DNA sequence: ACGCATTAATTGGCTGACCAATGATTGGTC
DNA sequence: GACCAATCATTGGTCAGCCAATTAATGCGT
C-alpha cells in the first residue's frame, strides 16, 4: 500500500507551528542554495561568515570570532584549520599571550571577496523574486524582530 | 590590537544581501532553539520531520520519505537507522519488492507525538513574540513565497 | 612568590546533511 | 529467456555545528 505522502508544503498538518515549520524548510533550502552558489569560490556553506569577518577586521583572536559570530569555539577551530589548509587564512600564536591564536585573511583570499558579495546578491535576488518593495521591507523588518526573539543568551534571564 | 568585531547584527556590511544574511542567522538560531526544545523528547533536530511524516502515514518506503521531505536518500537511511536503534521506528523489507524498505513509526513513538506538537507550538510562540497579527500574517505569506522561490527542482528548467 | 580561578584553544564524540559511487532487485524489450 | 536500463537502498567521504572534557597559558589575590 505504502501510503501517499504529500509533497512537503505549507499545508496545515495538525502539529501547529505552521510558520516555524515553513521557516525550518526555508532555512534548509536557503542554506543549500547558498552552498551551491558558493561552490565555485571553493568555500563551503558557513565558511563565508568567517571569511567576511576576517576581511573586515585585522588579525583577530578566535575567541573574538566565536563571540562575534556566536559560534562554538570548537567549530571555529576546525573550520579555520580547514580554511588555513586551503590557503584562505593565516593563523599564528599571539606572542603577547600564547594562549590566543591570531587569525587573518590571506592576501589571495581577498580575490574571493567580491565573489562572495556577488553570491549574497544573487541569493538575495533569488529568494525575494516576485516580492514587491513593501513585502521586501516587511520581510526584512520582521526577520530582524524574529532574530531578536531568538537572540543568543536571552533564554530566560530577563536582565543580565 | 586584535580589531574589534561587531556583534553580528542586521547592520549593512558592504556585502549586500542583507535580508539573505539575516535569514541565514535566523535559520541557525531557529534550528538551535528547536533542537533545545526537542532534546527532552530524545529526538534531534531534523528527526522530527521524519517522525511527523511517519505518524501521519502508514508504512512508507524510504524513497517516498526522501521525496516527500526533499531529503537525500542517504540522509534518510542513516537517520532512520538511528531512529530504529532508538526504538522510534520499525523497518522491514517489502516482501513484494525486496529493494524497498518499508518504514513505520513504532507504537511507543506515538507517545512523542503530542510533545513534538507542543514543541512546534512553543517555538512558534517564541519566534513570533511581539509581532502583531498583521505581521504574523505577512510573515507567513512572505515565507511561503520565499519557499516557492527556493523550491527544489526549479533551478533552471522552466517546465519539466 | 606561590597557588588557584579564569580564559583560550583544542580534542573527541555525535548530529544532520550533502554528493558520488556501489550493490541489489526489478521490469521492460528484443 | 537473456540482457540492459531504471529504481531503491546503502556505503564512503565530506562538510558545519553542537556539547563536554581537556590542556595550556595568564593573571590575580593572598
UniProtKB/TrEMBL annotation, chains A, B:
Pfam (any one): MarR
Keyword hit for DNA-binding: yes
Domain HTH marR-type: 16-148
Claim: Aminoacyl-tRNA synthetase is one of the keywords in the record: no
Keyword line: DNA-binding, Transcription, Transcription regulation
Full protein name: MarR family transcriptional regulator
Organism name: Streptomyces niphimycinicus
Lineage per the UniProt record: Bacteria, Bacillati, Actinomycetota, Actinomycetes, Kitasatosporales
Amino acid at each position: 500500500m505504502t501510503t501517499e505522502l504529500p509533497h512537503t508544503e505549507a499545508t496545515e498538518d495538525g502539529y501547529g507551528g505552521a510558520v516555524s515549520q515553513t521557516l525550518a524548510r526555508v532555512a534548509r533550502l536557503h542554506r543549500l542554495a547558498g552552498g551551491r552558489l558558493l561552490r565555485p569560490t571553493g568555500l563551503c556553506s558557513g565558511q563565508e561568515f568567517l571569511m567576511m569577518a576576517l576581511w573586515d577586521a585585522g588579525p583577530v583572536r578566535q575567541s573574538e570570532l566565536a563571540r562575534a559570530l556566536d559560534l562554538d569555539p570548537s567549530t571555529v577551530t576546525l573550520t579555520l584549520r580547514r580554511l588555513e589548509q586551503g590557503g584562505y587564512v593565516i593563523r599564528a600564536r599571539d606572542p603577547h599571550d600564547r594562549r590566543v591564536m591570531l587569525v587573518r585573511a590571506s592576501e589571495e583570499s581577498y580575490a574571493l571577496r567580491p565573489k562572495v558579495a556577488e553570491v549574497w546578491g544573487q541569493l538575495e535576488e533569488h529568494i525575494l523574486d516576485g516580492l514587491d518593495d513593501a513585502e521586501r521591507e516587511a520581510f526584512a523588518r520582521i526577520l530582524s524582530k524574529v532574530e531578536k526573539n531568538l537572540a543568543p543568551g536571552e533564554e530566560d534571564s530577563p536582565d543580565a
